[in-house]
Amino acid sequence: MDIDFVLKRAVAEIIVREELEKLLKSGKKLRLKEGLDPSSSDIHLGHMVGLRKLRQFQEMGHQVVLIVGDWTAQIGDPSGASVTRPMLSAEQVKANAQTYMEQFFKIVDKDKTEVRWQSEWFDKFTLADLVRLTSKFTVAQFLARDDFNKRFKAEKPIAITELLYPLLQAYDSVAVQSNVEFGGTDQKFNFLVGRELQSMMGQRPQQCFMTPLLVGTDGTQKMSKSLGNYIGVAEPPHEIYGKVMSIKDSLIMDYFELLTDVPDKELAEFRQALDNDRVNPMELKKRLAREIITQLYDEKAASEAGEHFTSVHQKKELPEEITEYRVPAATSSIDITLALVEKNLVRSRSEATRLIKQKAVEVDGEKITTHVVPVRNGSIVKIGKLRWMKVVSGD
């Protein structure tokens, strides 16, 4: 793996680049810290940007240390959200972490990863240890963090427990003797606290490796599950393919650069072809979708997803496998919100209602505007562009 490629492609900022480059050329096996925030169980393509970097470093012979934030998840890190995040129970944290790790290892090499739980060291913490840790920084330093500063000026609440989050994350770096910490640009403050604490504790300060924040499928805000503009790494290949095909044309090159290993020279040709209208953006999206799915699954899955998209969306055919919703023979209407929830096609009735208001739900080719809709045996329900359901009546 070329060091120059790793340190330039899909990189927002490195602190300190010159020092990291020297370490990489020294032959020393580096410990690469990645924090797992189990406040959510799913990983999307936004996370994949940084995880691909970890995989590249692994291929250069370095050691990933995955820290499961079972303590910090019970505090909550706003990370720019400008709101207090809810605390999670230990049971929620464990369940989320398990799902997260299954998805994490779709990208990162499990055999070259050391998994550590914060409770290994924080279970042994006493009140005296915590007081000593808090004495090393001032409130003013922490209020300089952008999201805290905005909330403070807006007179919005900031829990004292939230101020502990950067400290605990910083101590993680000390506990595992991190050489490089990875994450998005929204974690810069926390990374720098880690560097400073390591210096105070007599360790060599870690390098901070920050990747860009991927813009979501809406083309405006960063990819986020809560905003609904995400593509999950564990979604079925045909759904990933369909969502990639739906991204705005302006995102194509960013996605290629951040999510694939297509050579820079070839990307320059793509960019020039787009600028000069010498290529249909749809063809580049197809290539992009294949590249992403091949990484997460394999070439066969990518090829099948492409065939599915062509038949269902371009030729307007129904998918071969379609969810069936069975109703009694005499049924002439159904509550579509209940049906979609029951068949796990939406997460909640409120989501179904929102989709109906957005005119994203069709029954037999007609967009619906109400919850209760007339149906017949064989009625086809289409939700957005990628989900389908067939009504089957009979005893």
Compute the CA-based radius of gyration.
Answer: 24 Å
From the coordinates shown, what is the CATH architecture of the largest domain?
Answer: 3-Layer(aba) Sandwich
Give the end-to-end Cα distance, rounded to a whole number of Å: 61 Å
Could you list the spans in which at least 5 consecutive residues all have pLDDT below 50? 78-84
Fold and architecture overview:
- This protein is α/β, with parallel strands linked by helices.
- It has 3 domains: 3-211, Rossmann fold (3-Layer(aba) Sandwich); 237-314, Tyrosyl-Transfer RNA Synthetase (Orthogonal Bundle); 323-393, RNA-binding S4 domain (Structural Genomics Hypothetical 15.5 Kd Protein In mrcA-pckA Intergenic Region, Chain A), CATH 3.10.290.
- Helix content is 45%, strand content 14%.
- It has a 6-stranded mixed β-sheet, sandwiched between helices.
- It starts with a helix and ends with a strand.
